[in-house]
Specification:
There is one protein chain. By secondary structure, the protein is of the alpha/beta class. The protein has 10 helices and 12 strands.
């Protein structure tokens, strides 16, 4: 379907797909005011505009009002693909709910949704969240070449991290030991970041949603890390190599949580800028993933 060697657009670019010229014009104008470059095409041009394009956009904005089963199947592959440049999918849903042909698209690791009627601010906020996820994934993968395993025969490695910057370095370092580092790094970073943000810093799902929508997420994480009650907390990350698999045990110092609602991609969370990390890790990075005890320990494995 896709050539993984295709380039991701250097500047933020959105491709809007709709049969409605008013949607093409309105969405394009709203995103352009936020600094995006925007192109618009009829939905019938989907295959040529996406599958055959030399540059893949960071965001596909799809008017789902006239989406048929064949187009939905193609877009599902776009939203679910883990390898190659990252492209997010933003569905513009009709008022009153979405038919089954559209609901299948909510299960992509980079799928987002807006229900009509929506305002320009909602559109720009969710588009910004999608762009950050794409950039974050590309940055994680981009530095992997600097992290060749310094101890290729190591059987056990133990690390301790406190900040998101340290989590990034730990994920990149450990991913180099896996069979597919570009996929493994995403899952490791998601699990370690969750342990820091939700475990040690105690930020709830809804708090993170509100902070992301307000553009205050990074500042709040840095503020909490500096506070006396949090600054000495850390996350331990242990890698154990067996003959046919790698095991990663990640332990935080928080109170734990119920992980069951987050193990699979939930269509309802497609309307939020967050809530995909654990399911993403389980889907594209690990062969097994299990939370232990009260939920502050997670064991993830990948076959060699």
């Amino acid at each position: 379907m896709f050539d993984d060697r295709v380039n991701i657009a250097v500047t933020p670019h959105a491709l809007v797909l709709s049969e409605d010229v008013d949607v093409l014009a309105g969405v394009g104008a709203d995103l352009a005011t936020a600094g995006w470059t925007v192109s618009g095409q009829p939905l019938a041009m989907l295959w040529r505009s996406v599958g055959g394009a030399p540059y893949r956009p960071q965001l596909l904005v799809v008017d789902a009002a006239t989406l048929d089963a064949r187009a939905a199947e193609f877009l599902q592959l776009v939203a679910a693909v883990g390898s190659g440049p990252a492209t997010a999918l933003l569905l513009l849903l009709p008022a009153g709910g979405s038919p089954p042909v559209q609901q299948s698209l909510f299960h992509g690791t980079l799928s987002f949704a807006l229900q009509r009627p929506f305002g320009a601010r909602e559109l720009r906020t969710l588009a910004s969240a999608a762009l950050e996820r794409c950039r974050w994934r590309e940055e994680l993968r981009g530095a992997l070449g600097y992290f060749a395993p310094p101890l290729p025969d190591a059987r056990v490695l133990k690390l301790r991290v406190r900040t998101l910057a340290e989590a990034t370095q730990a994920a990149q370092f450990l991913a180099a030991y896996g069979p597919e580092p570009d996929m493994l790094v995403i899952g490791l970073m998601e699990l370690i970041a969750n342990a820091i943000e939700h475990g040690n810093l105690g930020i709830s799902y809804r708090e993170k949603t509100a902070l992301l929508l307000a553009g205050a997420w990074s500042d709040e994480v840095e503020r909490r890390i500096r506070e006396p009650q949090y600054r000495d907390l850390s996350v331990s990350v242990e890698m154990r190599r067996e003959r046919e698999s790698l095991h990663f045990l990640i332990v935080d110092q928080g109170r734990g949580f119920d992980p069951r609602p987050y193990l699979a991609l939930d269509p309802q969370r497609a309307f939020d800028p967050n809530g995909r990390g654990i399911a993403m890790a389980r889907t594209i990075s690990f062969t097994e993933l299990e939370y232990l005890g009260c939920g502050n320990r997670v064991l993830a494995s990948v076959r060699l």
